[in-house]
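Throughout our pipeline, every protein is held as a single compact record rather than as scattered files. This encoding replaces a full spatial description with a residue-level series of whole-number codes. The remainder of this section carries one protein's record, kept here as part of the documentation.
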Amino acid sequence: MSFDWSEYLNVARQLLVYGTGPQSGEGSLRSAVSRAYYGAFGTARNHLRDRESLVIPRGRNVHIWVRDQFQNSRDAVRKDIGATLNRLREARNKADYRDVVQGWRDMAIKALADAEETIEASRR
């Protein structure tokens, strides 16, 4: 049985709780953003592979390819999935590569909400 990428949302939720507690840590919030993205991305990618029988390319550009499969659609729901994946990836890139970013708590909360929405829409 293949990995359920939405499990990363549980990890992201735990990191968010830890990151906003009395011993809060920016690393936890950054990791929550990252895990939220990967939960949504993996679910969307597997939707394309398993339900639409598309051959998924390998390499770094797969993230752009998956986003574009949704974003370039005529269907409004698919366009929303693509736009949300793009927002999540931008947030994940900030979390993983930028030294200084303000508003981590809000960013993590938004990333979780976006990921949940994307996962739900990808499973339809």
Helices lie at 7-19, 26-50, 62-71, 76-97, 104-122. The chain has one domain: 7-122. The mean pLDDT is 93.
